[in-house]
Amino acid sequence: MVKERRTQQRIILSLQVILLIGMILSSLLIYEHFKTTASEFCQFGDALDCDVVNKSPYANLDGLSYMMVFDWYWNVPYINISNNNWFLDLITSNAFLGLLSLGLIFILTLKKIRTFLFIRPERKLVWVRGLLIFGMIYGWYLVYVQHSLIRSYCIFCLGLDAVLLASVILSFFAREL
C-alpha cells in the first residue's frame, strides 16, 4: 500500500515536471511569436525554422479558417481576427492557449487544490486526461500543418507535442489526483 502510494506520488510529480517544461516551451513560443527580429536559436535551415512556423497564419486559431479557405478552397468565410491588434493576436495564438491549458492542468494536479472552478475533486483526473487528449489531437493537427502546408518544423512545437504525449501516458498511469 505504501509502495503504491509512493509510485502514484512519483507519477504525479513527473507529470507536474513535464507540464512545467511544456509551460516553459509555450512561453518561449509566445516570445518568438511576438519578436520582431529573426530567431537566433531556433533556425536550422529551411526544414527546421521556428520563425516560419510561429509567424505563419496557422500560429493562431484563425489559421483553421485560413486553411479551409486558401488551402482547401472551401467556400466558407475567412476569419482573421489575430491581425487586428496585439491582444487578439495573443489570446488566439496557439502558444498562449497551450500555456493556459497546461497551467490549468497543472493546477488540477495539485493535491492542495480540492475544487477548482466547477471541477469536483473526484472528476479532476477525468478532466486532466480529457484536456491532454484534446491538446494532443490538436498538436497532431499542427504537426500536419507543419509537414504538409508549411513544409518546415518548429523544434519547440515538436517538443511541446512530446510533452503532451508524455503527459497523456503519465495521466493514464495515475489512479487519482
CATH architecture call: Up-down Bundle
Largest sheet: none
CATH H level, superfamily name: VKOR domain
Strand-residue proportion: under 5%
Q: Secondary-structure element sequence?
A: HHHHHHH
Shape: elongated
Task: Summarize the entry for a quick read.
With 177 residues, the chain is an all-alpha fold. The chain has one domain: VKOR domain (de novo design (two linked rop proteins), Up-down Bundle), CATH 1.20.1440.130.
Describe the 3D structure:
The protein has 177 residues and is an all-alpha fold. The chain has one domain (2-173): de novo design (two linked rop proteins) (Up-down Bundle). Helix content is 66%, strand content 0%. The chain has 7 helices and no strands. The chain has helices at 2-34, 50-54, 63-71, 86-92, 94-109, 124-150, 155-173. α1 packs antiparallel against α7 (155-173). 28% of the residues are buried.
Q: What are the defining features of this structure?
A:
elongated, about 180 residues, mainly alpha, 7 helices, single chain, de novo design (two linked rop proteins)
List the helices and strands and how they pair.
Elements: H1 2-34, H2 50-54, H3 63-71, H4 86-92, H5 94-109, H6 124-150, H7 155-173
